[in-house]
DNA sequence: AAATTTTGTTAGTCTGCCTAACATAATACG
DNA sequence: CGTATTATGTTAGGCAGACTAACAAAATTT
């Protein structure tokens, strides 16, 4: 994650009391809540709540949006982040699509757009940068004054990402700025797209109930995002979870080569093996991965064999992850990985080779990455608003 | 890490101010310090320091041990943890030796002993449990009243260790209690021995300057300890870093088996390969690992080949670690790993296969594990004293 | 011996929370 | 329908734990 500019909107929450800050954080994180709920959750007394809410309303960081009636007694006031908290723009700069969402810091959707790139981009480069610039410009043109100030722009990249103290030159992350310049005064948060998908599984997806898990993406490319105690593991070079660089092949006499796992486990290699080994009796080989999976589901023996073999390979990969990180839960995602058919075999192999892991299949579709970067952008915005941004 | 009993000495620091607690923590962690130093480090004003130190001295948690004279001005008073902070006993329950240290919470050595087991134990069992019981009993018999209360017993185990919420039955950790019962009222902290070695590298060893790194142990057995932001990564099953269960062999058509890496990378397998492939022209094969290393250092070609090949294998292992965790620094330890001769090759292979990592060789000898569990025991004791023990 | 510098103490203040008591607004009950 | 009960919100007052300012003490330099 990265902050390129630090000249942002004045943080209205620079001088709030600790309780007011914690209330705002809760409102931003969990959406609308009543005063008693907030006080209960944070262990604050009613007088303190009164004072803190008054503080927040005074600077526009909280607004009363209604009242709810319990079974008995007076109605409770319901609040959410106020207009001064502003909004964020989140962009998934993917290799085939650019997805954009504008949302409030409590993640209410204000605007969204999707742009399909004219051609699939293997690497982060000018094509993507250009598309991001266009989509952002279009969004800024449609910005409503009621959205409040733009606090943060978050961009998910198909590239390693390092923070300010890391060696930026060694990643491709700066390529995102090759064709556009983000608006001055608005900080930009960058994050790797697989990490974003992991964040989304945690905040919106199948891993909502777990603060520690790994997200394994298997598709054209392979990757992993590691969440520990609710925080992303990034690593010194932003390379944590870059399982495409596991030593592979590995064994007595094997000669591992950089990036070789991905060339073996990626969808292209899989389909090549499928085509090569396809029995003539079964007719033409599957046209693509979806076709392969469909035929396996339909009961085709050859297809099932290939899918099972692939699931075993994924299981081995997951076992290595468990042996190193022992996350307790692994979420499978990506074009291939998201298919529930793989789950039983992956589970069996991983648990046989290493230690107990639960395996789940991602439920978020194409939106996982945008939702993840949106979460990170909102967190950043809240930090900025409260004057607690980490440098 | 694990706490079996919670009935401990009354925590004298239950009702201290936050500043007093932070001062005590600093005294325990960094040893003797002057008031100005403490105040400076913690950002506390002199009046606050006065009050807090008075609090601590009042309950015996701090003692003035002298004064130091700066170049100018009045002398500054020097403090360290007081008699009420008591002591801890730390035990490395190893497979060949049981090492024990009694020390104050600021890690001044009070007493130490080493017991050599009559026979090497592959698994944690009654032999080790018995030896631990004996050594602990001998220590308790020699305990000096001046040491203050025994706060915590820490034991490093050659086994996976899970916390209270984990599935204890699935590990062998309880076997440590098969032949001895720790004194009632004294909490016991258990930790895996490789994790302890990692902690020691951080607190006393070559990784003092890094809060994030991995410690890779290569010897009879192989293992890894992962330190992230100064905290051990344990994992859901206490299996984080259990690289003996990486999927291996791994490759197109390979059939991985549980625990196979250890059977390939461990010293026994290495020496078997060395003996098998030893050219008759070179005379009798090396008797043991130390012999192999000595011959390699002396320039023997066959020995060098085997050592280089092993270093390449270790490099591949490290590369997998870097691809998953990207720690930035890997410390090599263990009977084989600690040999500096491996370093260049490991560094070359790891950096070629994955991402930039610094590789260092452990400098702590046999004491690494005791020192690590001592650090953990002291941390636990401090938490207990301050009434902040995590359950 | 006086000036300077650092350390430690005393006095007073301020912030941010709390508890206790009261006020308000809803439902439940006779 | 009025009163009891209950939940929510406010007012008043207090207290813990930090701070600043000013002073006192103990070392050095001039």
How would you sum up this structure, described in words?
The structure is a homodimer. In chain A, the strands form three sheets. Chain A has a five-stranded mixed sheet, sandwiched between helices. A five-stranded mixed sheet of chain A has the order 11-10-9-12-13, sandwiched between helices. Chain A has helices spanning about 20-30, 35-40, 45-60, 125-140, 195-205, 260-265, 265-275, 290-295, 300-325, 335, 345-355, 370-385; strands at about 35, 60-70, 75-80, 85-95, 95-105, 110-115, 150-155, 190, 215-220, 220-230, 230, 330-335, 360. The relative contact order of chain A is 0.14. With about 400 residues, chain A is α/β, with parallel strands linked by helices. The model of chain A is unreliable at about 1-10 (pLDDT under 50). Chain A binds a DNA duplex (30 and 30 nucleotides) through helix 3.
List the helices and strands and how they pair.
2 copies of one chain form a homodimer.
Chain A: H1 18-30, E1 33-34, H2 35-42, H3 46-58, E2 62-68, E3 76-81, E4 87-93, E5 97-104, E6 109-116, H4 126-142, E7 150-157, E8 188-192, H5 193-203, E9 213-218, E10 222-228, E11 231-232, H6 260-265, H7 267-276, H8 289-297, H9 301-325, E12 329-333, H10 334-337, H11 343-353, E13 358-361, H12 368-385
Parallel strand pairs in A: 4-7, 7-8, 9-12, 12-13
Antiparallel strand pairs in A: 1-3, 2-3, 4-5, 5-6, 9-10, 10-11
Helix pairs in contact in A: 1-3, 2-3, 5-12, 8-9, 9-11
Chain A binds a DNA duplex (30 and 30 nucleotides) through helix 3.
């Amino acid at each position: 994650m990265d902050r390129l500019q630090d000249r942002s909107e004045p943080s209205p929450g620079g001088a709030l009391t600790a309780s007011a800050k914690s209330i705002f954080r809760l409102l931003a994180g969990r959406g609308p809540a009543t005063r008693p709920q907030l006080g209960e959750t944070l262990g604050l007394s009613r007088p303190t709540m009164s004072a803190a809410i008054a503080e927040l309303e005074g600077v526009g960081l909280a607004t009363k949006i209604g009242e709810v009636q319990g079974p008995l007694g007076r109605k409770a006031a319901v609040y959410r982040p106020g207009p001064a908290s502003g909004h964020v723009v989140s962009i998934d700069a993917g290799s085939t699509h650019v997805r954009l969402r504008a949302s409030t810091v409590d993640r209410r959707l204000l605007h969204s757009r999707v742009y399909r790139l004219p051609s699939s981009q293997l690497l982060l480069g000018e094509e993507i940068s250009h598309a991001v610039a266009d989509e952002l410009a279009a969004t800024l043109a449609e910005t409503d004054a009621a959205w409040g100030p733009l606090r943060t722009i978050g961009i998910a990249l198909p590239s390693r990402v390092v923070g300010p103290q890391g060696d930026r030159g060694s990643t491709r992350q700066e390529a995102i700025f090759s064709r556009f310049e983000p608006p001055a005064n608005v900080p930009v948060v960058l994050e790797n797209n697989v990490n974003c998908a992991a964040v989304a599984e945690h905040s919106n997806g199948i891993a909502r109930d777990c603060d520690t898990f790994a997200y394994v993406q298997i598709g054209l490319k392979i990757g992993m995002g590691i969440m520990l105690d609710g925080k992303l593991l990034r690593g010194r070079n932003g390379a944590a979870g870059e399982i495409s660089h596991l030593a592979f092949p590995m064994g007595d006499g094997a000669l591992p080569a950089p990036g070789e796992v991905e060339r073996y486990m990626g969808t292209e290699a899989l389909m090549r093996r499928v085509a090569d080994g396809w029995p003539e009796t079964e007719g033409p080989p599957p046209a693509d991965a979806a076709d392969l999976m469909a035929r396996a589901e339909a009961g085709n023996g050859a297809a099932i064999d290939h899918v099972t073999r692939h699931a075993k390979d994924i299981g081995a990969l997951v076992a290595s992850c468990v042996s190193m990180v022992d996350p307790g839960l692994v979420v499978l995602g990506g074009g291939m990985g998201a298919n529930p058919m793989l789950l039983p075999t992956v589970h069996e192999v991983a648990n046989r080779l290493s230690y107990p892991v639960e395996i789940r299949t991602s439920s978020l579709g194409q939106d996982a990455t945008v939702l993840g970067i949106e979460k990170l952008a909102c967190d950043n915005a809240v930090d900025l608003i409260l004057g607690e941004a980490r440098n």
